[in-house]
Amino acid sequence: VLGFPFIFRGALDVRATDINMEMKLAAAHALADLAKEDVPDSVLKAYGLDQLRFGPDYIIPKPLDARVLMWVAPAVAKAAMESGVARRELDLEAYLDELAARIGAGYQIMRSMQAKAKEAPKRVVFAEGEQPKIIRAAHALLSQGIATPILLGREAVIQAQCQELGLDSLPTVVDPNQSEKRRGYAQNFYEQRQRKGVTATLARDLMRQPNYFGPMMVKQGDADAFVSGLTYNYPEVLRPALQVVGSQPDRGKVSGVYLMLVQGRPYFFSDATVNIDPDAETLATIAINAADVAKRFDVEPRIAMLSFSNFGSTRHAQSEKVRQATEIVKARRPDLVVDGEMQADVAVVPELMAQHYPFSAVKDANVLIFPDLAAANTAYKLLNRLGGAETIGPILVGMGRPVHVLETGADVVDIVNVATLAVVDAQFNS
Ligand SMILES: CC(C)(COP(=O)(O)OP(=O)(O)OC[C@H]1O[C@@H](n2cnc3c(N)ncnc32)[C@H](O)[C@@H]1OP(=O)(O)O)[C@@H](O)C(=O)NCCC(=O)NCCS
């Protein structure tokens, strides 16, 4: 199951005339190398295991490990080309993209984001540096050249975890309680918030907490991006970060975007993470933030401002708010294609729009702006859990410096993804 399909995939893709020893050896080496990599949580779950590490009980990858395709097929194709049995020459990078698309649109998108991140890796500081999942993610980020991770926590604890996990290299560790920078950070925070109820003593206490210390590292230029949230509730990460780095002056409000992949098609949902009951002005900012995220993924945004009403069909303060927000977006960003208020089905079914509202500027929307947090959060979770959509994010937009919040209990692959997006965000901001 491990060799057959993937050796043939590589052999067929280069139209090989033979499957020679070089190709078989390449497949064997690829499998051996993959077995030494960190095993994704999805594979562990599929086999009901807590951990899997290269050793006497695990010497070859598991058949349900989707990465086998990405490792074996290109190795075989390369060996075929080098040993002269290929009738077709492949660009291996383009071939890897093609294979990634077979695994899923989310995998393919994150591969291209990883390539962007690798062009200029940034320092990403993690609040929860003692957590095994964070250490595994940090190791993956470092070994793949996506980021230079900085783990906040006690060095001895992290070292012991690394040993336990069988990881050879130790990422940079900073212990807020031992750091010589803490006093300076506390003074900075005190000066910034002394008229907002923060005393010098409180500032010193707060800087012992990773969710204050980490954003302050980014603010002071000692790191480029901050990631936290694996073990915290969302507000516990967001509130300190907002106090330390604030929001970008030109955006005003911070909001969160999820990239939802529905049958391979991208949709950007917002705001499912930050603003509980946005007013029209905030809703307009949410829409603009989300459209800018879509552009960062090379998607041309078509924004639908969602409601229970279609273009004035139900007059109510809630639909009026969405209509006003639409007008504000149009005034603030005439370059954007936006319309509303409209119902979700009208937004995503072009035939419905064409039949009933042919005057609308938006057809087949791909940026969906929900009237409040309850609607957005519920919609993305249902689409993910019942609709089987792949989810990338949350992507936080509008923070004064790159700060990104993980979902509680996120898997290692999600942590790597959010950190990758944080690196791209930091590149964008630098
Ligand atoms: C984001 C959140 C934590 C902010 O809480 P809050 O009670 O408004 O926080 P505070 O009043 O302490 O605000 C802290 C600072 O951030 C600012 N702020 C709050 N929300 C902001 C936003 N959306 N954008 C920019 N700044 C914001 C405040 O103005 C304040 O600034 P200041 O202290 O310098 O004057 C809160 O809105 C929240 O809990 N949101 C929902 C999170 C959630 O549960 N998501 C679903 C799960 S993923």
Key terms for this structure?
single chain; 430 residues; alpha/beta; Rossmann fold; 3 domains; six-stranded mixed beta sheet; five-stranded parallel beta sheet; 18 helices; flat; binds coenzyme A
Quick take:
The protein is an alpha/beta fold. The protein has 18 helices and eleven strands.
Q: Spans of 5+ residues with little confidence (pLDDT < 50)?
A: none
Q: What structural category do the secondary elements indicate?
A: alpha/beta
The number of helical runs is 18
Cα end-to-end separation: 46 Å
CATH topology call of the largest domain? Rossmann fold
Q: Compounds present?
A: coenzyme A
Number of strands: 11
| Rg result | 24 Å
Please give the domain count.
3
Tell me the name of the CATH homologous superfamily of the largest domain.
Isocitrate/Isopropylmalate dehydrogenase-like
Q: How is the main sheet built?
A: 6 strands, mixed
Mean pLDDT: 93
Strand order of the largest sheet: 8-7-9-6-5-10
CATH class of the largest domain: Alpha Beta
**Approximately what portion of the residues adopt beta-strand conformation?**
5-15%
What string, H for helix and E for strand, traces the elements in order? HHHHHHEHEHEHHHEHEEHEHEHHEHEEH
Q: Give the name of the CATH architecture of the largest domain.
A: 3-Layer(aba) Sandwich
Based on Cα principal axes, name the global outline: flat
Share of helix among residues?
Answer: 40-55%
